[in-house]
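Researcher: Next entry in the queue.
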Amino acid sequence: QGAGFGNHDAYEVYVKAAEYFQDEYLGGFGMEQPTACVEGGDYNIYGEVSHSLHFYDAAGDLTEQILHYNFDTVRIACDDVRQLMLIEQKRIDRSHKVGDYPILTVEEAKAAFAAGDYLSTVPEEYCMDTPEAVYVELIYRTGNSEKYYLPYYRIYAEISPDFERTTAVRNYGAFYVPAVRPEYLKNAELWDGRFN
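Model: Structure for this entry, 196 residues:
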């Protein structure tokens, strides 16, 4: 039917597929304003691009949208022949809220990043001497190993040109700055930089 997508299809293919899946399948998931999110654009060592598709509810104020984006999503995946393979709803229990804490501004997070106060899986030898943030987003780490779900600023910055790839694309790394103000995190268990 041409409604699906392949593992290495272009961004535009995912956007078109999102329209189809939203019309056909999203009505039963209780979202007031289902909104597609095509993430990725990463290249593997063979120069193949990859994306992923999920939906979140963009209803409510900005805080509610951020919470929906991180904790209540529907992921769509297709198989090797572009047929629907998976519809997975993620709903993380937020009923045991610890509290509300003040967070850093984006500018404060960028300053912390520039000072080297971040977590990352990028090997240190590939970090730029004077890193500059090119994109910043507020996210929650929601993997299986988190005891508490803390907000982080995920900052993308170009990494050293010495980090060679098989393609001539620029390379960016993800760097995480805890968003909660540091005076509230003295005894907190922070993400240690490992993948889940």
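Model: The mean pLDDT is 86.
Researcher: Noted, moving on.
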